[in-house]
């Protein structure tokens, strides 16, 4: 007997206590996580009041949704789910951290036919970290559905392992562009029955680094397929792709403001030599759950990681190749337990731009790593003399204000314990 797919790619068979008999109050048997009492911003609370049950989803899928702690659909989920279920193409503009993964994974899983042993849906993302994170969410949400097989595949991992895994049944593939294209060309990933393809962070996927691969991938898919395209920004490349490949897409725009409502943005004016000292001061004065520090090159992040370790903090670093330059980032935890689920988790409440980015789009993606799912966060930018024009340009481009850093930062701006669900400050 062949082995099952592992590496975050399949879920255990449903346990006997998950079997629901007609007439049962099925919600009583759910293993719900603790209720999230943190204050949320209107990015995720300004809903129409829909419930997940309103979408006529399979009960087993609803069980997974509620066990994720998702109580009600966020605005992007309200807009996306019914349209995606109807089979229509979607072009959605939504911020990072507002429930985007659920917006496409829920309709994707609802439409999987377990009687068919073939790849039925493909999710393409720009980075390995995001692929692993999305696959974990997909596995958790589908855990009661009786055998949805999910596979994450990215560059930098053993191709032979992927080939062996695809010898088994796979229903959903979550992949980076180069790897899925390689598997398709080798005839290993058979995508002739794919009914849905999702492009998450499409602005990156359709940048000059990836766009040729994306065009090639689409050439292998059936002509009758549904495309769901999610992007925080809409450069010309996204519009050209939409005109060429999407059929009368339903357009969703939830971004009157580009920056996340819950993220307070500051800058500290420093010389290059003062940056590490400034960072150390921030660590000692701020109440950080977990923070991410961005640099503009992989060499600088490796040097910075050494300095941070010498200061006595636990940290690790990863490089994410984006566009022509390597946008390198370093994740730091103020506690000794390092997180392993990638950079896109709710515990991050402070983002620091050790090097200020040159593009507004890059800035937006970076600061979107704090304030996840409508919670509060802080973005601090270390600005040198050479960055001053860039700072003003990005403020104007994004229609936002980056203020000088005050001597004392109010904890209610970024620390969850200082807020209740009602938005009133809580004195710990």
TrEMBL record:
Residues 1-18 have a biased composition (Polar residues). Keywords: ATP-binding, Cytoplasm, Helicase, Hydrolase, Nucleotide-binding, RNA-binding. A motif (Q motif) lies at residues 50-78. GO terms for cellular component: P-body. It catalyses: ATP + H2O = ADP + phosphate + H(+). It is an enzyme of class 3 (hydrolase). Its main location: cytoplasm. One of its GO terms (molecular function) is hydrolase activity. Residues 262-413 form the Helicase C-terminal domain. It comes from the Eukaryota. Residues 1-34 are annotated as: Disordered. Its EC number is 3.6.4.13. It is found in: Cytoplasm, P-body. Residues 22-34 have a biased composition (Basic and acidic residues). Residues 50-78 form the DEAD-box RNA helicase Q domain. Residues 81-252 form the Helicase ATP-binding domain. CDD domains: DEADc_DDX6 (cd17940), SF2_C_DEAD (cd18787). Belongs to the DEAD box helicase family. DDX6/DHH1 subfamily. This is RNA helicase.
């Amino acid at each position: 007997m062949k082995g099952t797919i592992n590496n975050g790619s399949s879920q255990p068979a449903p346990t006997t206590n998950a079997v629901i008999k007609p007439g049962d109050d099925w919600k009583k048997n759910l293993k719900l996580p603790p209720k999230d009492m943190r204050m949320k911003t209107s990015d995720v609370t300004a809903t129409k009041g829909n419930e997940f049950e309103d979408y006529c989803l399979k009960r087993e899928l609803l069980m997974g949704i509620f066990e994720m702690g998702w109580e009600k659909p966020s605005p992007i989920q309200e807009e996306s789910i019914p349209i995606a279920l109807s089979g229509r193409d979607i072009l959605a503009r939504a911020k990072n951290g507002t429930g985007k993964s659920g917006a496409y994974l829920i309709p994707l899983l609802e439409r999987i036919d377990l009687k068919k042993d073939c790849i039925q849906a493909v999710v393409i993302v720009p980075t390995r970290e995001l692929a692993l994170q999305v696959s974990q969410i997909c596995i958790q949400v589908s855990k009661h559905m009786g055998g949805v097989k999910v596979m994450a595949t990215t560059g930098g991992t053993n191709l032979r392992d992927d080939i062996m895994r695809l010898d088994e049944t796979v229903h959903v593939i979550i992949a980076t562009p180069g790897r899925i294209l390689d598997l398709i060309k080798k005839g290993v990933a058979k995508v002739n029955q794919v009914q849905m393809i999702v492009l998450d962070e499409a602005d990156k996927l359709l940048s000059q680094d990836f766009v040729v691969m994306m065009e090639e991938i689409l050439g292998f898919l059936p002509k009758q397929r549904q495309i769901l395209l999610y992007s925080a920004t809409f450069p010309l490349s996204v519009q050209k792709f939409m005109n060429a490949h999407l059929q009368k897409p339903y357009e969703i725009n939830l971004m009157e403001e580009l920056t996340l409502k819950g993220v307070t943005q500051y800058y500290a004016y420093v010389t290059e030599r003062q940056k590490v000292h400034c960072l150390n001061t921030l660590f000692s004065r701020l109440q950080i759950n977990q923070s991410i520090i961005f640099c503009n090159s992989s060499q600088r992040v490796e040097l910075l990681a050494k300095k941070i370790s010498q200061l006595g903090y636990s940290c690790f670093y990863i490089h994410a190749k984006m566009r022509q330059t390597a946008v390198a980032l370093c994740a730091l935890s103020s506690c000794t337990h390092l997180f392993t689920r990638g950079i896109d988790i709710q515990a991050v409440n402070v983002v620091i731009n050790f090097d200020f980015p040159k593009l507004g789009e890059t800035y937006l993606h970076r600061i979107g790593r704090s304030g996840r799912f409508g919670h509060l966060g802080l973005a601090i930018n270390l600005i040198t003399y050479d960055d001053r024009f860039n700072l003003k340009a990005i403020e104007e481009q994004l229609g936002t204000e980056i203020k000088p850093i005050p001597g004392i930062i109010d904890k209610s701006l970024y620390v969850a314990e200082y807020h209740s669900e009602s938005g009133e400050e809580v004195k710990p």
